[in-house]
Design brief:
Blueprint: H1 2-22, E1 24-33, E2 44-47, E3 53-55, E4 61-68, E5 70-77, E6 84-91, E7 96-104, E8 132-135, H2 136-141, H3 149-152, E9 159-161, E10 169-171, E11 179-183, E12 186-187, E13 192-193, H4 199-204, E14 208-209, E15 216-222, E16 236-242, E17 251-257, E18 260-268, E19 275-285, H5 287-292, E20 300-315, E21 318-333, H6 335-340, E22 348-368, E23 371-392, E24 407-432, E25 435-454, E26 458-460, E27 477-479, H7 481-484, E28 486-506, E29 509-520, E30 525-539, E31 542-553, H8 557-562, E32 572-586, E33 589-608, E34 613-631, E35 638-651, E36 659-660, E37 667-674
Parallel strand pairs: 1-7, 11-16
Antiparallel strand pairs: 1-4, 2-3, 2-5, 5-6, 8-15, 9-10, 11-12, 13-14, 15-16, 17-18, 18-19, 19-20, 20-21, 21-22, 22-23, 23-24, 24-25, 25-28, 26-27, 28-29, 29-30, 30-31, 31-32, 32-33, 33-34, 34-35, 35-36, 35-37
Length: 675
């Protein structure tokens, strides 16, 4: 019996051990050089608060096994590089948590005793001025954002949002349409649903992000003075990185409720061993919700978002990722909705159908031990068909008894599309730890197709004092189809190239100098944008920043829509001057102060809304100071306090003087705390 007893005991011990192992999870990741993207073999990776750790292999990959389900912080150390702490690494039992490419920054070998080494903040001396980074966990935890990166950005200094209704953001007095937005290195600014409405609402941007929660892996934001790598807009830039799929294990989840449905897949592709895939699909229909709360008068808004990203590691030197975004939306407001409104307060009719599409391919090649090339190929499209009109609920003084009694008249239809094919090539070479050279070329072919049709005569009761009226004493304008109907169909090429040299001649100081060239075939003009930035280390925890440069902004489809003569307009121009100070109070606590001045000229302004003619006569300025104190999630809590004072004015130079810009917001204060 004894052998049987020992066998049973051994089996029980084995089963308990397997059970305990199944209750634990693993961490896998890769460590690379931030500038050259080369893997860093031999990097030491430790899980803070445990005795667990690992070293990276020849491809920079590390694997840490058997961790209890929890949220961890891992510390990464490599000789000659700044130490870095990756916070909020979530381990789930029976799963392998994959950390995408932890990028380390080289330390400057110091002979003067000045070297910035801060754990939870990476100090990139090649970054022009203050920049902010949000991780996926930080976006998820941001109070009130509900996982929406654009609402989360509203807590940053210099950034103002329009409250809970809108998902867009404005920066330092600029319009939301003046921000550069990149999705995996591809320009794409159609990132929200239901843009527009009234004239004022159109300026605010969209209401719902096209990105479901937990889809953005990282967001990098800079409010001004940015590098020559970025152009086409003159306010700020936001670089969003869609998360890569976990090639170790699969996660599938979904949701079904009164609002709609959602389905997410994250895991191996099943068709290629070295390919991972992320699929995010959702549909939201607010019609039923509005009915339940008695607000059906607002109409029927609904949208769908389908986002797919695949990542393939062909070999250690070649990495390819594919990105597809399809985001249609539909909104209609009919006579049924007008009938439900209180006292027929709103009589607007709308039938909107819009689709946003992005298809992109990124190919990164490690061309040498200290260089890499990134090629991006993309197609992006935006198709929009909207018909607007008005209902007349009162006929001969009689109120309608049902929606069938309401007379309706559709007045204007707008049908337009914007299609662009583009190629981007970026090359980075770091001959030594003191120098970096980057250069790039961008080519895009854009087609604008627009048609505006008015059905019969229309009477307008909203106009500016300078709008043309045959009889100035009239308090209305009669609009004729002959005056409104318009077609525009043009295809042109836009070119851009840039070069930048980053140099650290001494341990305390570093410079970035570069120039960007842009050609706009629509107006057939060439533009050169020189830019300069510098950093000076006062001591091991204090840095002074400076940046200046010229930034040009390409006008968009709405300028063409107003009138074909507007095609000759020049690009708008901005001069940036930025001064800042960064103080690392602790490894997890950073204080930033930044002052700025922006001079704007060649601004496009409307001469007469009835004719649609525009000109480059406008100018303006913006100035202010941004303060922020950021506490990273080390210990029991994280938080942020920020304050911005700003003033922004414009002048159309029509003799009426200057006025505050539409997004002038003198005081912005935010406080955030989480556990």
């Amino acid at each position: 019996m004894k052998p049987l007893k020992y066998l049973v005991t051994l089996l029980l011990i084995t089963m308990i051990s397997n059970l305990n192992a199944q209750e634990k999870g693993d961490i896998k990741g890769i460590v690379i050089d931030k500038i050259t993207k080369q893997p860093l073999p031999g990097t030491n990776v430790m899980v803070i608060g445990t005795k667990k750790g690992a070293a990276t292999d020849i491809d920079g990959v590390f694997f840490i096994k058997n961790l209890e389900e929890d949220i961890y912080k891992i510390k990464i150390n490599f000789i000659g590089y700044q130490s870095y702490i990756e916070t909020e690494v979530r381990v789930i039992r029976n799963k392998t948590t994959y950390i995408e490419e932890i990028e380390l920054i080289q330390s400057v070998i110091s002979t003067e005793g000045v070297s910035v080494t801060v754990g939870t903040f990476q100090v990139d001396r090649r970054a022009p001025v203050s920049n902010y980074t949000y991780s996926r966990e930080e976006i998820r935890r941001s109070p009130g954002a509900a996982g929406d990166i654009f609402r989360a950005l509203g807590t940053l200094p210099g950034v103002s949002s329009s409250g809970g209704e809108f998902s867009a953001f404005s920066v330092r007095g600029g319009s939301p349409k003046e921000n550069i937005i990149l999705i995996d290195n591809i320009p794409f600014d159609k990132v929200s649903h239901f843009n527009g409405g009234s004239e004022e609402q159109d300026k605010q941007g969209g209401r719902f992000s096209i990105f479901a929660p937990n889809l953005i892996e990282e967001a990098n934001f800079q409010a001004g003075g940015f590098s020559v790598k970025y152009g086409g807009k003159n306010a700020a830039f936001l670089d969003l990185k869609i998360k890569e799929g976990n090639n170790e294990n699969m996660t599938l989840d979904g949701r079904l409720d009164v609002l709609g449905w959602e389905l997410n897949y994250d895991g191996p592709s099943q068709f290629h061993r070295n390919t991972s895939i992320v699929i995010s699909a959702r549909h939201q229909d607010f019609t039923r919700i509005l009915e339940l709360i008695g607000q059906e008068e607002f109409g029927s808004p609904r949208f769908t978002d389908i986002i797919i990203k695949t990542t393939t590691n062909i070999n250690p030197r070649n990495k390819i990722s594919f990105l597809g975004i399809f985001a249609p939306e539909k909104f209609d407001r009919t006579t049924t909705d007008v009938f439900e409104s209180d006292n027929f307060a709103s009589i607007d009719l709308t039938d909107l159908d819009e689709g946003k599409t992005l298809i992109g391919l990124n190919w990164r090649i490690l061309t040498g031990k200290s260089s890499f090339m990134k090629n991006s190929f993309y197609y992006r499209g935006n198709n929009r068909l909207v018909t607007i009109g008005r209902a007349n609920p009162i006929i001969n003084g009689t109120l309608p008894q049902s929606e069938k009694d309401i007379h309706k008249k559709y007045t204007v239809r707008q049908d337009y599309s914007e299609i662009e094919f583009g190629i981007k090539n970026d090359f980075t070479f770091a001959p030594n730890s003191q120098s970096t050279i980057i250069a790039g070329v961008e080519i895009s072919h854009t087609n604008y197709d627009y048609k505006r049709t008015q059905f019969g005569l229309d009477t307008l009761y909203v106009f500016d004092q300078d709008d043309f009226r045959p009889d100035p004493s009239q308090k209305f304008i009669v609009s004729s189809p002959d005056f409104v109907n318009f077609e525009f169909d043009e295809s042109k090429i836009n070119l851009a190239s840039y070069a930048e040299y980053s140099w650290t001649p001494r341990e305390k100081i570093s410079f970035n100098t570069g120039i960007r060239y842009e050609y706009n075939e629509f107006n057939k003009k060439n533009y050169f944008s020189p830019r300069l930035s510098a950093k000076y280390l006062l001591n091991e925890r204090t840095i002074l920043n400076f940046a200046t440069g010229i930034y040009y902004q390409v006008y968009k489809l709405d300028v063409f829509n107003a009138g074909k003569a507007n095609i000759i307009l020049k690009n708008e121009r901005a001069y940036h001057y930025v001064f800042g100070l960064v103080r690392y109070l602790r490894d997890d606590l950073k204080l930033t102060t930044e002052s700025y001045y922006k001079h704007l000229d060649d601004l496009i302004v409307t001469n007469d809304r009835t004719s649609g003619i525009m000109s480059n006569t406008g100018d303006g300025w913006a100035a202010g100071i941004d303060l922020s104190l950021i506490k990273r999630f080390v210990g029991k809590f994280y938080g942020q306090i920020s304050y911005s004072y700003a003033k922004s004015e414009r002048d159309d130079n029509y003799g009426d003087g200057s006025y505050p810009s539409d997004f002038n917001q003198p005081h912005i204060f935010n406080i955030l705390r989480g556990h």
